[in-house]
Amino acid sequence: MKGFLSGIGEFRSIDHIKSMCVMPGRGLVGIGDDAAVIKVSPGMVTLVTTDMLVEGVHFDLAYTGFEALGYKSAAVNLSDIAAMGGRPRFYLVSVALRPKMRLEELEGLYRGLESACRPFGVRLVGGDTTASAGGSVGCSSGPMVISVTIIGEAYPGRAVKRSGAQAGDDIYVTGSLGDSACGLAILKARGTGGLNKDEALLAARHLKPSPRIKAGRLLGEGMMASAMIDISDGLSSDLGHILEQSGVGAVVYKDRLPISGGLINTAGIKKAVQYALHGGEDYELLFTARPSNRKKIAVRQGEAGVSFTAIGKVTAEHGAELVDEKGQGRALRPSGYEHFRK
Ligand code: ADP
Ligand code: MG
């Protein structure tokens, strides 16, 4: 099947999506009925998370292909399940699409969604489809919108909240920070063509973030993390959420921030540090842990498939402080991305 969605129609488009994806197992109901029927594992609690991406706000089709968009829409939600220390199981996708979208483009979108979800055994069980053209307000074609919902599970009492940090805890991040924000700046300025190896890697970190599912599960199920969040808005902002909800403060050491060689080569050390502190969309995990867990955390990072770097300490005094190489401290204020703020 080929052509525009306006010619193919909603129902045939959904049937086509269904044929592309792995449906849930026996005894369960996926796409095609009025509601899905699913089941989490016996004895587990259910996690639910949803995230919406709007054209012109979160993505630009000028430098994001449909497959990359699908991948990222799923990955940001998987990252939220990771940040709870859970296992993702099922997903739903709601889309507002232009009638002039081609079926091949919709296929690309679902190929991307499935490529993010399949490695974790996460199955598509439903969604909703609507045209984005706002007939009632007279515009011929609104922005494309994609909203993904993921249903996951965790052992009771082991989902890791933002509120569990205590004074004296160590603060860690997975992987490296700032790559995605620099990658976005490159994509905005130059698009995807003619990038050197470092630049291409940074762009890929923006377009194809790796949800840290395994790391999150290890930390949650092994009761190693006291609080956890995924870095979507930037370290300074997302650390702020943990501190606020836990009623504590923090000291972060500038020279301990994990910054990739590629980012330093591309942006220079000074800008690289700014990207690492405030740049969003790395989708790394930021977590706190009691010092008694240090050894366990160091040993388990191999299994997690990503590095764990201690970057600071939780303090009883409120507020976040950034300490430089010379031991001088200054306030670390949240300055990541926030919607509605100018
Ligand atoms: P209803 O009118 O009962 O909401 P729909 O026609 O919206 O039914 O959806 C029919 C089936 O297709 C449902 O199982 C729904 O979950 C699924 N579905 C609709 N749109 C999508 C989509 N974009 N992706 C995945 N599943 C979808
Ligand atoms: Mg519907």
Q: Which features characterize this protein?
A:
342 residues, 11 helices, 35% helix, 22% strand, globular, binds adenosine-5'-diphosphate, binds magnesium ion
Write a structural description.
This protein has 342 residues and is α+β, with helices and mostly antiparallel strands. Helix content is 35%, strand content 22%. It has 11 helices and 11 strands. It has helices at 5-8, 10-20, 66-83, 103-117, 179-190, 197-207, 213-221, 235-246, 261-267, 269-278, 294-304; strands at 45-54, 87-97, 123-131, 145-154, 170-174, 227-230, 249-253, 285-289, 308-315, 319-323, 329-331. The strands form 2 sheets. Strands 6-8-5-9-7-10-11 form a 7-stranded mixed sheet, with helices on both faces. It has a 4-stranded mixed sheet with strand order 1-4-2-3. Helix 4 links the parallel strand 2 and strand 3. Helix 3 packs parallel to helix 4. The longest helix has 18 residues, at 66-83. The radius of gyration is 21 Å and the shape is globular. It binds adenosine-5'-diphosphate and magnesium ion. Adenosine-5'-diphosphate (ADP) binds at residues 14, 17, 31-34, 93, 95, 124, 126-129.
Strand content: 15-25%
Main sheet, how many strands, which sense, barrel?
Answer: 7 strands, mixed
Numbering strands along the chain, what is their spatial order in the largest sheet?
A: 6-8-5-9-7-10-11
Distance between the termini: 44 Å
**Secondary-structure-derived class:** alpha+beta
Based on CA inertia axes, which overall geometry fits? globular
Tell me the number of strands.
11
Overall radius of gyration: 21 Å
Bound molecules: adenosine-5'-diphosphate, magnesium ion
Q: What share of the residues lie within helices?
A: 25-40%
Order of helices and strands: HHEHEHEEEHHHEHEHHEHEEE
Specify the number of helices. Answer: 11
Unreliable residue runs: none
Summed over residues and divided by their number, the pLDDT gives a mean of 93
